[in-house]
Amino acid sequence: MGILPFTPNRFPMLLQLLSEPAAEQAGVRLLLLRDDLTHPELPGNKWRKLKYNLQEARQLGHHTLLTFGGAFSNHLAAVAAAGRLTGLRTVGVVRGEELAHRPLNLTLARAAADGMELRFLDRATYRRKHEPEVLAEVLRVTGPAYVVPEGGSNALALPGCAELVTELRVLTAFDALCVACGTGGTLAGLVTGLQGPEQALGFAALKGADFLRSDIDQLTQAATGRTFRNWALHTAYHGGGYAKLSPELRAFITGFQVRHGVLLDPIYTGKMLVGVLDLLAQGHFRRGSTVVAVHTGGLQAWAGFGGAPTPLALG
What we know:
Blueprint: E1 15-17, H1 21-26, E2 29-33, H2 46-59, E3 64-69, H3 74-86, E4 89-95, H4 106-113, E5 117-121, H5 123-126, H6 132-142, E6 146-147, H7 157-171, E7 176-181, H8 185-193, E8 199-204, H9 212-224, E9 231-234, H10 247-260, H11 269-281, E10 290-294, H12 311-314
Parallel strand pairs: 2-10, 3-4, 3-6, 4-5, 7-8, 7-10, 8-9
Antiparallel strand pairs: 1-2
């Protein structure tokens, strides 16, 4: 098995100051943490979630990783890349049996090119993937494997995400750390790495995400034996639901790229920045404080929305 390539030694952590009217009027220093750049081959925060899971897989003697995701899953892409880099076989169980009869989209094609075996599951069965009998049937077909949950969120994901906080603190003191939430694993990991008055804010990418609060508590309990109160979850910035790209959100992302030269993804980080700027306009953050928003990658998702904004379109 190859050496695990999970030290971001090619790109240093990059912080970008965002000159936004809402931040300036609020008297807040707003920084964008480019975690999408800290690993050369794995997208955004996903390598952090995988780091200790892959070490565990190796220690248990597994040669196959099995995981789950939707058609445009950042997580599937990351696991496939990690498998190629480490010499592990990877199997991706994709939500939607009907996709097996269609050409692969760019995300799944890249995963396949990285060596991932794609298996498609009907949506009703996919919803039951955590049930022992369903998982046992999947493993009967694929063979023994180390199972990584959808989104990569489990107790072993948290220490890898907590390391982001340690790395950030070397560069700057901060008061609030903001991140988009899908399964809640990244936020849970950040929470465990905070110290003193530092706070974490999560911005849910899916509608009806109140359940994430208990999921995050369960993750931190499993990883550290305790729950935390140094965080908050905002659920009003989902933009219509998971993988929904409204004209307003597209316009925001396009404008952000014009202003800052940074492309946001349409599922997670774009919604999070909408939320952060809205909270700034409401006076949510203390004047004189430093707020850091984390760009967690996921740009390959633009393939499902007709492609990313182009320089020509940006004018």
